[in-house]
Specification:
The chain is an alpha+beta fold and 494 residues long. The protein is 14% helix and 26% strand. A hairpin with a 2-residue loop joins strand 17 and strand 18. The longest helix has 15 residues. The protein starts with 13 loop residues before the first helix and ends in a 31-residue tail after the last helix. The structure holds heme C (HEC). The site of heme C has 22 residues, from helix 5.
Length: 494
């Protein structure tokens, strides 16, 4: 990280500006809505102070039937984990932190959809509770238990359409396997657009049997699925040109499913097409045994846009990464990889999604436009928890054509990185988890001149930006266009 890139966003609230100056960034709309931060209580108790945090964040996974190895829902559940809760919430945005979300809060953009991270005060409250004997507190102050419909609740809300893949069996002693799975018709009879997407593996692993390893990888066997939806035309002989679908308008590629990966929310103006009569097609699924015979299938949940919706923006299709000459030395922490691309169109960045493998520790995304060099984000990386970070609407970068996007990957191929099986090995590029990738798989849309100007005008209005503000990820947002000649008043612009 280079000094001088951390930029503040001047705002109207005095104390917030001060805090922002110290932190190096400001959350524009969070500032306007957030009440004064709850201070850390003198003597935190489970019922009054910890249970509300657990219910809001941790219970999504740490409840009976949840994906996590233990429940934290009641005092009895949580008490034995008090010290571990303190440790896992306080280590900063890197492998091991709970909840698993790795955005660095001292640099770059800070507003994301579905950000589950804890505030500094909440982290301090958990720490103080653990340090003071983890008391229960007054049972009357315990919030009523949260009711979960069932353990298959969806982060995108109840899907409008769920498509299930055929069941797969992975033997306990099976080697890794890559290949094709039978395609499954999605059953839509009209074209619809997709607002959000989530994929779950449903299997017969008993999470609480104690037999599986207490990791996400031990619970699931489908490690990734690269997939598309495609209208399969039986009259076309695809064996002649297996890549013909790449040019086919009716084929849509979707975000890769990976174990531990979160849901996707598409830009409301650029929802993705799900063609009538198409099928889920994957010729690259990676199965990895968890040590016992397991039956599993994937459930693909789609949240649809209302009927009649049409997208305003086109997807921007370009690569950002280096798949050719990755060179990761043995037994060395803190190695860097760099890759660049030049934007050929005005671009709105919808999400940032570092795709690294086991040695991956961190990735930064930087935008260079003329003399503007901004770090848009730096995020930690844990190969057990692949995250995509969807920007909130008013913080998605709006970058002019010609901007250079630069990613920096930080790799730790040393014994301190527990995800690396044997750091004595040199590592290069490849598909397998013991080989490497270095890509930003984020989603982006392309904007015309008009759309680009409109997006910036709307953002200026919503965030009350003036020419004195500094906006991370939108170098032209504060360039106030001159008034239209007919309406010119001659007064200074503010
Ligand atoms: C997205 C699901 C998810 C959320 C949300 C989540 N956890 Fe976890 N947690 C897990 C999983 C899965 C594991 C085991 C694998 C791992 O450690 O990464 C785990 C492990 C832990 C451990 C370590 C257990 C051990 O064996 O040492 C602690 C402590 C913990 N979580 C606390 C929390 C707390 C506190 C919160 C809320 C602030 C939280 N988690 C939120 C899924 C989650």
């Amino acid at each position: 990280m280079k000094a001088g890139f951390t930029v503040g966003w001047r705002f109207h609230i005095g104390t917030a500006v001060l805090a922002a100056a110290v932190m190096g960034w400001v959350a524009p709309f969070a500032l306007k809505t957030a009440a004064a931060p709850a201070a850390v209580p003198e003597a935190p108790t489970f019922t009054k102070d910890i249970a509300p945090i657990v219910q809001r964040i941790c219970e999504n996974c740490h409840r009976p039937d949840g994906v996590a190895p233990m429940s934290l829902a009641t005092y009895e559940d949580a008490r034995p984990w008090a010290r571990a809760m303190k440790l896992r919430t306080s280590i900063g945005p890197k492998a091991g932190v709970m909840p698993p979300w790795y955005v660095e809060k001292n640099i770059g953009i800070q507003q994301f959809h579905n950000d589950p991270s804890l505030s500094e005060d909440e982290i301090a409250t958990i720490g103080k509770w653990a340090d003071t004997g983890a008391p229960r507190g007054n049972p009357a102050e315990m919030p009523p238990p949260k009711v979960y419909a069932d353990h298959t609740a969806w982060a995108i809300g109840t899907p409008d359409l769920i498509v299930k893949t055929k069941e797969l069996t992975v033997k306990g002693d099976a080697p890794d396997w890559w290949g094709e799975i039978p395609s499954v018709p999605i059953g839509l009879t009209e074209d619809r657009y997709v607002a959000a997407l989530e994929i779950k593996e449903v299997n017969d692993v008993d999470a609480h049997s104690g037999l599986n390893r207490a990791t996400v990888g031990g619970r699931f066997v489908v490690h990734h699925m690269i997939w598309r939806t495609q209208v399969i035309d039986p009259t076309k002989d695809q064996s002649q040109d297996p890549l013909s679908f790449l040019l086919d308008e009716e084929t849509v590629n979707w975000p890769v499913h990976e174990v531990g990966r979160n849901a996707d929310f598409f830009d409301p103006k650029s929802a993705r097409l799900l063609k009538a009569g198409s099928s889920i097609v994957s010729d690259s699924i990676h199965l990895h045994s968890n040590g016992r015979d397991t039956k599993a299938h994937l459930e693909i949940g789609f949240k649809l846009m209302p009927k009649g919706y049409t997208p305003t923006y086109k997807r921007a299709v370009f690569g950002l990464g280096n798949g050719v000459d990755i060179d990761i030395k043995a037994m060395e922490p803190n190695q860097q990889l760099h890759a660049y691309t030049v934007l050929q169109q005005h671009t709105k960045i919808i999400s940032f999604e570092p795709h690294l493998h086991a040695p991956g520790q961190r990735m930064c995304l930087e935008a260079i436009w003329g003399y503007n060099i901004q770090t848009l984000n730096c995020v930690g990386y844990d190969h057990n928890w692949v995250r995509g970070y969807d920007y909130a609407d008013d913080s998605a970068p709006l970058l002019p054509k010609g901007t250079i996007l630069h990613i920096v990957g930080y790799m730790d191929n040393s014994p301190t990185n527990k995800n690396v099986p044997d750091p004595r090995n040199w590592q290069g590029s490849g598909n397998r988890s013991v080989a490497n990738m270095f890509i930003d798989l984020g989603m982006r849309v392309a904007l015309t001149d008009e759309q680009f100007k409109d997006e910036m005008a709307q953002r200026r209005a919503r965030l009350h930006l003036t020419k004195n503000d500094y906006v991370i990820g939108c170098p032209l947002c504060t360039v106030i266009p001159p008034p239209a000649p007919a309406k010119a008043s001659g007064g200074p612009q503010q």
